[in-house]
Amino acid sequence: SSSGIVIAQDGIVRMINPALADIIDYPADEIVSRSFTDFIHPEDAGMVIQRHIARLRGDDVETDYSFRIITSHGVVKWVNLRSALIIWNQKPASLNYVVDITESKLAERDLMEREETFRALAENSIDVIMRFDRGYRHLYVNPIAERITGIPRDLFIGKTHEELGFPEELCKLWEGNLEKVF
Question: Which of 68, 97, 135, 144 could be a cystine partner for 41, CB 3.0 to 4.6 Å?
């Protein structure tokens, strides 16, 4: 499997596959028989332990979630874990599929930072800033648009200029300009 696989029982790693060793960047023989918390970021360890214990008790607990791990070189990575309760050597254990999602988490963070930058600029601009879909419906308008038009911002969303009551010739001009942008 390209996913990491780990069986954990009583907080101890009982079995792994080579993909898991690659993800956490430890030799397999340094992983098995250790506490799985040895590899989890300290800020996430409590949550992972609580879910593991609850799962072993048979409680209804989230089985698909993300947290951070720390590799043998001290690199922090994000992983997604999917877990199921199994019986291993006549005792409850968890079978876990682990996928490295570090790149997507970094891309998500980058996107959020860009969104925050856009919002800060747009929300404080003295110019009208609007976003539209291909049907010329408003997806976003900044506060100055409301001040200039007197139309509340939330009324813009999902509507065209025509539906908002702007003059037809002005709407055609705006639509022509938007088509050039599209």
Answer: 68
